[in-house]
C-alpha cells in the first residue's frame, strides 16, 4: 500500500493561538489510489477528531504549517502533530526553488488556478463571524469552499515542485 499523505490547512478567528479559535480544519488524504476530503468545523474540532481524521497518515503537508497551523493546533487542542507524524512544510520547499510569498502568490507563480479568487485569511475570519453572528449558511459554505480549495491546492503545489525535494 502506498504512503498515505495528508494535506492540511486550518482557518481561525485570528492570528493568536492564545485568544483565537480554530474554525475549520481541512484534510485531504491521498495514497496514490484513493483520496478523501475531511472538514472539521467549530465544536467538532477536538484532539480526538483530528487524530481520527489523520489515522493511518504517514506524512502531513502544509504551507507555513510549521509556524502557524501545527503550533496553533498544539496550543488550542494540546496535540503536537509534528511529533506524531512526519511533517513537510511546502513553504520551505518553495523557498528552495526561488518561490517566495504567501501561498496564493506562489500559486499564481506556478499557474495553480483558484475558483475563489481574491479571498484571503481575513475574509475567512469575516465569513466565520457572519455565520456565527447572523446564522448565515452561505457564509459558512463559502468559508468551507475556501478551505477546501486551500487544502486541495497544497497537493497541486507539491506536484509542481521538483520530484527530488
Question: In words, what does this structure look like?
Answer:
- The protein is an alpha/beta fold.
- The protein has one domain: Ribonuclease H-like superfamily/Ribonuclease H (Nucleotidyltransferase, domain 5), CATH 3.30.420.10.
- The chain has seven helices and five strands, in the order E-E-E-H-E-H-H-E-H-H-H-H.
- It has helices at residues 47-53, 69-77, 81-84, 90-96, 103-110, 121-134, 137-160, and strands spanning 5-12, 22-30, 35-41, 59-62, 86-89.
- It has a five-stranded mixed β-sheet, sandwiched between helices.
- A hairpin with a 4-residue loop joins strand 2 and strand 3.
- Helix 6 runs antiparallel to helix 7.
- The longest helix is centred in the C-terminal third of the chain and has 24 residues, at 137-160.
Write down the CATH class.
Answer: Alpha Beta
Number of domains: 1
Q: Any idea what the radius of gyration is?
A: 15 Å
**What's the multimeric state?**
single chain
Largest β-sheet summary:
5 strands, mixed
Span of the ends, CA to CA = 22 Å
Describe, in short, the structure shown.
44% of the residues lie in helices and 19% in strands.
Task: Describe the SSE topology.
Blueprint: E1 5-12, E2 22-30, E3 35-41, H1 47-53, E4 59-62, H2 69-77, H3 81-84, E5 86-89, H4 90-96, H5 103-110, H6 121-134, H7 137-160
Parallel strand pairs: 1-4, 4-5
Antiparallel strand pairs: 1-2, 2-3
